[in-house]
Design goal:
The complex is a heterotetramer, with 2 copies of chain A (328 residues) and 2 copies of chain B (355 residues). Chain A is 36% helix and 20% strand. The longest helix of chain A has 15 residues. Chain A is of the alpha/beta class and 328 residues long. Chain A has 2 domains: 184 residues, Rossmann fold (3-Layer(aba) Sandwich); 127 residues, Rossmann fold (3-Layer(aba) Sandwich). The radius of gyration of chain A is 19 Å and the shape is globular. Chain B is an alpha/beta fold. In chain B, strands 1-7-8-4-3-2 form a 6-stranded parallel β-sheet, sandwiched between helices. In chain B, strands 5-6 form a two-stranded antiparallel sheet. The chains are: A alpha/beta (328), B alpha/beta (355). Chains in contact: A-B, A-C, A-D, B-C, B-D, C-D. At the A-C interface, helix 4, helix 6 and helix 10 of A face helix 4, helix 6 and helix 10 of C. The complex binds thiamine diphosphate (2 copies) and magnesium ion (2 copies). One thiamine diphosphate sits at the interface of chains D and A.
């Protein structure tokens, strides 16, 4: 088994490279992705190796990036669109919701919307406004899309390839604050299916769930809790739409308590969905109501105070305390 | 309508008009073919309007007055070209071979598409104004990458010309020198909004500002529309890049059968345009120059009649789809939530079962 | 007390008229709203009476409608933007999410984003695609916006005025299938605050909650249930953001069971939010998990089968049966 | 840079250039004022860059090379006019009276705004490319409704020119004949994307296609920028409608301090543009024609130095805001969820208490 250590950024780069080698129809398109290699260097070197026709430096307009990717999909290409930052996906919202999500249906299955929208998301990098948002919720609400997020280099490497190969449009959310963290990547075998949630750490008192950059925070919280004698089971949600409720429910049936954690504001969020659905699935096993820890219901704050906005170990453990305090 | 800028090859009276850059390349049979197309599509349109009045369609978007624009453009396409319509291009769909009943499925409210877009190389209807123009540019970028000698034609209205997507599609087409032709039917109205609200100057002037040519053609002159579009497509196919064709025409009917145009425009304006009827002027040419006989015209009318009758039958035969079909083709493969909801619907007994 | 009977369409028209009379800074802007009076005739006659400068027929571009309304707000105007149909709000999504929702904050409270985005929403009118959607969920998820929906002519008359007067941007969702239904309008006194939920029918077995056109369906379901001996308490949610959980929890504390109904797909929806929050607030009173009845997770279907997509009395009562079947 | 289309009143060497339509209206003191503005804003920019290098700012977007474009445009504004910037218009903010420390608050990451936009009649920074151009048009529509003789000036880059919002703002400005001037700083780069990707022809050509005039001005010539912008604003104020001004200039520095321009452009290009420095050419004029003495230049340099020093002190004094402030000004009045979350934060003890 060939495993090697690399950053998530490099793993994405390698995953893209492998997808492009395997399938000549795979294109990359986005702002500054060519010569510059993208502002995060995720596409570094790819234009040099695959040419300007396959790694396309786009004029600056997101609706057009996604809209032309739709046309390319109709022509049989698979375009991986890079949106430079989460907060710049909204100009493309109309194309995503009205076209990308609906064209397979509208064409009675004739069109394959084989395209991936890469979205560096969530905060934690000390950036200015619009560079730290969590728009995955909007896309999860939209029928016709699939939305996934990686939390490790290995997942990054495999999930980007699986997303490109998948015949449905995938919104691929990359936790930008983890781009430079290293991990083992198995170059031979994918860890699991693209839409599977994964237990990252076993535990028996409370299930904590999250995705993207939050997973590492959950693991830290679990470590701290363990020191205090509380055992957390950590689930990496991975697929935000569809959600893998089977894996989640299996854990909650066992623990009877859960906390869903996310950076997005709370209202009608992924956390809300998880709480609503798990409550229904595990009602008789629940010893406390499921609790959410979310970004606050305000525009993402200036980054000097973003640490107080993003769910951190303290807030997670506070919520754990609350669900542990309930008695059934 | 005396307009220096307008490419015209046939006067409203059906007289040939000389133009310094364009001349008609079509012989008797081909012109007769265009005439036949226009007569048929008008008949289909009228049948659809009455089907709607009789409660058999949820809605209809009439094409009357725009037959020359649509048939001229549609017939200028080569078989391997691809076209991206909005919602009113029934004439173009006809040229591409889309069966009339397929055009009506959307309006019968039994589907959101209606035909196989790859088979006819004509995309599905696009209702959100302007979205399709970006798809056309993207498709054209695919054509470039395939090294194919094909062109792409996309349609939008004077109203849609104000949408960001249409304008971005101009930027992109120019930036990539994409083999795409933008065909704007300026029928002078976007529901109740006159085209002067979208632009105080002719719309085709926009193109040069983006770096590619724009042409305004008499949209009621099928010969001119055909030649202008054909040349633009040919140029696109051989690397000449995009062209914007503005077909200056008029929407004689209502925006859709839900619309009441008497609320916002005067009859006199409509009357003026009725006298510029796109079908009559070709008929005059055919009769005078090509000596086409009355019987030929009659045969075409009868053919249109038969098609309308068949269309009516086909539409009436379109039953309510099984609701369970709403779950089909949303995703390419298994999706747990869809599976669960499909099961729920079956349990509720509102469906005949799996489709 | 001056009450009079009118349709919801007329009530909105009168409400807009009164707001324009009261405040010369109130403008209307949208596609076809002038001479035509809008495709639903909500603004009928207003351009004639208030002039083209106050009732503005816009070029066809939603991002510009909202974006210029932002500029007008900065200049001190209050613009009521009409989006012709729900499915056409997405081109304006970027302006709504990145500007309308955030400019008060970004300007440290200097800018008042006094604007209303009127959105005829939900299905049930036999329309073609993009004319029957429920995009309120996207806006409820967005911090900085308020989102309300009327279900009666009286609410329509008052809520539109309250929305215009409010200093926050309001997404005003109008259940288009109810435009032509009549009801009593009290021209003197508003029924209650803009953000209050209301009990439309009292009951004791199960609380059913919904908004917009769904409310009438809930009342019908309650009638049918009553005939079968089941007593439903019907809550008109009215304010989708913020949600009035106090009123909802009061009811659920009493009934111990609830069903949240909506036309939008289920994932991360208003229903999910209601279930998640009420579960937490009423955990010990709940005798069954809260259940959602939603539009299916597919693009809104062709209207010949929309009745099978939209939550109807059967599906609501089926859900009521399910929560009644649970035993605690 | 010999370009027939470019309005230029001062050569790179600081010699007067005759232009058939424009001439400089400014006397010695006024030109010296522009020089002073440019020197100061460059010094502020350099100070900010070093503050960022020292970890005192999260980011900085340099303005070097574009001082003439920004100062010329900013000084052309009348006090009652209103301006809508993107994120790089520090020079314009300076002209509007925004205190330098306020410009840096965003970059210190302690706010998303920084100054009172109504007080300075200069809107908050807009990071999402192009959004502000529609705000400007809307504001201008308000000016029209107030019957005021004011104009609106809005800024965007060559990159942003491809965004639907900018293009829609052209449509709207033309349709409503709004008193707005679009000021495009074509600094030839949008991060790593050369402006040729956005348009193969000069950007100011776009305007006539929308029905209003476009002018290209030498963006490194402060006299020309001033006159061109002033005339456009005057025309707007008296009902002449919109104008697009394209200031042809160059971004000497990095896109932001996060950017590494050596990855995508060659030094030689930068060197060429350094020789077209906007400050040096005015200095040459001042020295030669207006006989301004070295001591005067020195005094200005010293003033800039003092301002930079004060700026540094002000920035260092900007502490971390109390996190509780994130709940302020989200809504105009009570909001139950905000109240609850504010309480939660206080209970968690991460805040000093209600703000
Ligand atoms: C984004 C969007 N906004 C609004 C509408 C509603 N609408 C449908 S057709 C129409 C008028 C379009 O006019 P035009 O582009 O001239 O086309 P025509 O109907 O004249 O063929 C409008 C406003 C829509 N379909 N899409
Ligand atoms: C909608 C949107 N997409 C992407 C970005 C990221 N971005 C920030 S600046 C920039 C380049 C802009 O270039 P230009 O408009 O020429 O302005 P300049 O930076 O040269 O002043 C990009 C792509 C953004 N801010 N907004
Ligand atoms: Mg039209
Ligand atoms: Mg630039």
């Amino acid at each position: 088994m060939a495993t090697t250590t690399m950053t998530m950024a490099k793993a994405l780069n390698e995953g893209l490279r492998r997808a492009m080698e395997k399938n000549p129809k795979v294109l990359l398109m986005g702002e500054d992705i060519g010569r510059l290699g993208g502002v995060f260097r995720i596409t570094d070197g790819l234009q040099k190796d695959f040419g300007e026709d396959r790694v396309i430096d786009a004029p600056l307009a997101e609706s057009a990036i996604v809209g032309t990717a739709v046309g390319l999909a109709i022509r049989g290409y698979r375009t991986v669109c890079e949106i430079q930052f989460d907060g710049f996906v909204y100009p493309a919202f109309d194309q995503i919701v009205s076209q990308v999500a609906k064209l397979r249906k509208r064409s009675d299955g004739v069109y394959t919307m084989g395209l991936v929208i890469r979205l560096p998301f969530q905060g934690g990098i000390g950036a200015i406004e619009h560079h730290s948002e969590s728009p995955e919720v909007y896309f999860a609400q939209t029928a016709g899309l699939r939305v996934v997020s990686c939390s490790t280099p290995n997942d990054a490497y495999w999930m980007i390839q699986q997303s490109i190969e998948h015949d449905d449009p995938v919104v691929f959310c990359e936790p930008k604050s983890r781009y430079w963290e290293k991990g083992e990547v198995d170059l031979d075998n994918p860890p699991q299916g693209l839409f599977d949630a994964v237990v990252r750490r076993e535990g028996h008192d409370v299930t904590v769930l999250g995705y993207g950059s939050t997973v590492k925070t959950l693991l830290r919280a679990a470590q701290t809790a363990a020191n205090e004698g509380v055992s957390l089971e950590v689930i990496d949600v991975r697929s935000v739409s569809p959600l893998d409720f089977e894996t989640m429910a299996r854990s909650v049936e066992k623990t009877g308590r859960f906390v869903a954690v996310q950076e997005s504001p709370q209202t009608a969020s992924i956390g809300s969905e998880i709480v609503a659905e798990l409550t229904q699935r595990c009602f008789y096993s629940l010893r406390a109501p499921g609790v959410r820890v979310s970004g606050y219901s305000v525009p993402y704050p200036p980054s000097r105070i973003e640490d107080a906005y993003r769910p951190n170990v303290d807030r997670i453990l506070d919520a754990v305390d609350r669900v542990m305090g309930f008695e059934s | 309508m005396i307009d220096e800028e307008l490419v015209q090859l046939l006067s409203p009276e059906g007289e040939r008009v000389a133009h310094p850059e364009y001349e008609s390349s079509l012989g008797s049979n081909e012109v007769l073919g265009l005439y036949r197309d226009m007569v048929i599509i008008r008949r289909i349109c009228n049948e659809s309007t009455s089907l709607q009045r009789q409660g058999q369609l949820a809605l209809w978007a009439p094409v009357q007055g725009q037959e020359a624009a649509q048939i001229g453009a549609g017939r200028a396409l080569a078989p391997m070209d691809f076209s991206f319509p909005s919602y009113r291009e029934h004439g173009v769909a006809w040229c591409r071979g889309v069966p009339p009943e397929d055009m009506l499925r959307v309006f019968r409210a039994v589907t959101t598409g209606g035909w196989d877009p790859q088979k006819y190389r004509h995309s599905v209807p696009t209702v959100v104004l302007g979205n399709q123009t970006l798809h056309a540019v993207g498709y054209a970028m695919g054509v470039q990458r395939d090294g194919a000698e094909e062109a792409v034609l996309t349609f939008f209205g004077d109203g849609a010309s104000s949408q960001g997507d249409v304008l971005e599609s101009f930027v992109w087409a120019a930036s990539f020198n994409a083999p795409v032709v933008f065909f704007c039917q300026n029928n002078q109205w976007g529901i109740s909004t006159p085209s002067s609200v979208q632009s105080k100057i002719p719309l085709y002037h926009r193109a040069p500002g983006f770096g590619f040519p724009g042409v305004r053609v008499d949209g009621n002159d099928v010969l001119a529309v055909y030649e202008v579009t054909k040349r633009a497509l040919e140029s696109a196919r051989v690397g000449g890049g995009p062209t914007l064709v503005e077909a200056y025409t008029y929407r004689i009917g209502a925006h859709t059968t839900s619309d009441d145009p008497t609320r916002y425009r005067i009859d006199a304006e409509v009357e003026v345009w009725k006298h510029r009827d796109p079908i009559e002027r070709v008929k005059a040419l055919l009769a005078r120059e090509f000596k086409v006989k009355t019987t030929t015209f009659d045969e075409i009318a009868q053919e249109a009649e038969r098609l309308a009758l068949k269309l009516r039958e086909d539409v009436l035969a379109m039953g309510r789809p099984d609701p369970i079909t709403m779950f089909d083709n949303v995703y390419a493969d298994a999706h747990p939530l869809i599976d669960e909801e499909r099961r729920e619907m079956i349990e509720l007994g509102v469906s005949g079962g799996p489709s």
